[in-house]
Specification:
Number of domains: 2
Order of helices and strands: EEEHEHEHEHHHHHHEHEH
CATH superfamily of the largest domain: Alpha/Beta hydrolase fold, catalytic domain
Radius of gyration: 18 Å
CATH topology of the largest domain: Rossmann fold
Structural class: alpha/beta
Oligomer: single chain
Shape: globular
Distance between the termini: 21 Å
Strand content: 15-25%
CATH architecture of the largest domain: 3-Layer(aba) Sandwich
């Protein structure tokens, strides 16, 4: 799928729309599904059950994937959510299912709470935030960002690899550690460090009370062996949002193929059972 671009302020964002140029079937609501912090559309494709009859829109957030950082600051989940809504507007999606992984889940939750007239359903995969800003599980991102911003990349990576945080993650969540170490290898590491620091200190801006008032079909997916996306956070969201369905999948650190297959199956079943007879526009 070839991406298109969307200009927001002075940032050019890459947008992927699986419905472009083909019939995605009648009676199926489109999904707007977002990647995690440092991810891209390829990460979404691993997790989302794309099919010829299902339309999915993904925006690569600022300074991530192939999108520019732009000059507007500070980066925030609200900023990214506004960008996503603008892409949905440009694609002619009046109502859609909002979903995402980690940071993408926070974006989706914000869209559902702030724009209830636009969001018909919610899919939260491995959420890293519930209702608080700067949760402790996001602190390693701040640690990585500060090292990148204050030291040459080689020194910064070596310092993090030798840190107590790294030792803990190596023992308890090796998949998380691989992701954190990968941030030192990014071509845009300096500007992405700004993104990490800002987003890790942020939150969806949705209160527990607001989440408890959501009345749309909701799926929450969590897994264990993950210090960045605690299973307890997924369970907290699932018990707060009325009648939300909760699915626990195989940890990615244990079996990646099963992890992604189970997520795709859960999302596909949720969409088919709740949105087969709703128009995409």
């Amino acid at each position: 799928m070839a991406p298109t671009t969307l200009l927001r302020d002075d940032a050019t964002l890459r947008v992927f729309d699986t419905g472009q140029g083909r019939d995605t079937g009648q009676g199926r609501l489109a999904a707007v599904f977002q990647h995690g912090l440092g991810g891209d559309a390829a990460q979404v494709a691993q997790n989302f059950p794309d099919s010829p009859s299902r339309r999915r829109l993904t925006v690569e957030c600022r300074a991530q994937g192939g999108s520019d950082a732009g000059s507007r600051r500070p980066f925030s989940i609200a900023m990214f959510a506004d960008d996503v809504l603008a892409a949905a507007d440009a694609a002619g999606l009046d109502r859609f299912v909002a979903g995402g992984i980690s940071m993408g889940a926070a974006i989706a939750l914000r869209l559902a709470a702030v724009h209830p007239d636009r969001v018909a359903g919610l899919v939260l995969v491995r959420p890293a935030w519930a209702f608080d800003t700067a949760p402790q599980n996001m602190q390693p991102y701040v640690e990585v960002a500060e090292l990148i911003r204050n030291h040459p990349l080689g020194e910064a990576r070596a310092a993090f690899a030798a840190s107590a945080t790294s030792a803990r993650f190596r023992s308890e969540a090796p998949d998380n550690l691989a992701s954190l170490l990968g941030f030192f290898e990014r071509g845009n590491a300096a500007v992405f460090a700004e993104v990490m620091q800002a987003i890790a200190a942020d939150g969806p801006g949705v209160s527990r009370a607001a989440a408890a008032e959501l009345t749309i079909p909701t799926l929450v997916i969590g897994s264990g062996v993950d210090l960045v996306h605690p299973l307890a956070t997924a369970r907290e969201l699932a018990t707060t949002i009325p009648e939300a369905a909760f699915v626990e999948v195989t940890p990615k650190a244990a079996d990646k193929d099963s992890h992604f297959a189970e997520i795709r199956a859960a999302i596909g079943g949720f969409l088919d059972s709740n949105f087969n007879n709703q128009d995409q526009s």
